Amino acid sequence: MFFAGTAGGLAGGLLAALLLTGVILLGILLTFWTSRLLSATVLKGVPSSFTLELPPFRRPRVGQVVVRSVLDRTLFVLGRAAAVAAPAGLLIWLCANVQVGGDSILNWCTGFLDPFARLLGLDGVILMAFLLGFPANEIVLPIVIMAYLSTGSLVEYENLAALKTLLADHGWTWLTAVCTMLFSLAHWPCSTTCLTIARETRSIKWTALSIALPTGVGMALCLLTASTARLLGLA
């Protein structure tokens, strides 16, 4: 919306593809960098190995495969998602609709976070949306729209041009878009991922580190980008 435009076309499509490729490559570079950092610090001297056990080969039974896939994978994931999504949905609704001192809890929270978020090139609404989007990252932008429109419920824009106008009217610039993309790339994992990490590692320490490390990297990237743009007079 802010770099490739909303009209589409060949040029816009190519530019959007290049931007997405750049974000993916940045994510890969950050992965290698954090791996090197961990190997030189908290994992220094710890041997690493990867063992893959091959199961015995048997003739597949279609019925058993389908049943076990549904029970062991689909229902398990859906149940875990529902267990997290239901309380999260209630929390979002309460924040948007419960009034305290003539204003919603959501607006109080976004106002409190706004000064810190501005340092990162964001605003209080965006940062609060990431916090409330902990159960599922895909609801971050709908929460941003809900807060800007003060609707009290999640809404979604189908027209990118109208969405860009809404965001620009609430102070979004190219710098806001860049910092939002960077923080989307590097911040805490979603709740389901955190639960999986906790179950696999059986360690609060490693689960906390898996949340703190990407979040710290994302905040540092946003702070560096925003500060550089402001020092150069570009924002």
What coarse outline follows from CA principal-axis ratios? Answer: globular
> Which structural class fits the helix and strand makeup?
mainly alpha
- How far is it from the N-terminal to the C-terminal residue, by CA? 18 Å
Strand order of the largest sheet: 1-2
Query: What about the largest sheet?
Result: 2 strands, antiparallel
Describe the protein's architecture and organization.
The chain has 235 residues and is mainly α. The protein has nine helices and two strands. It has helices at residues 9-40, 62-97, 105-119, 124-132, 140-149, 160-169, 174-185, 191-201, 204-231, and strands spanning 99-100, 103-104. Strands 1-2 form a two-stranded antiparallel ribbon. A hairpin with a 2-residue loop joins strand 1 and strand 2 (103-104). Helix 3 crosses helix 4, helix 7 packs antiparallel against helix 9 and helix 8 (191-201) packs across helix 9. The two termini are 18 Å apart. The relative contact order is 0.10. The model has no long low-confidence stretch (mean pLDDT 86).
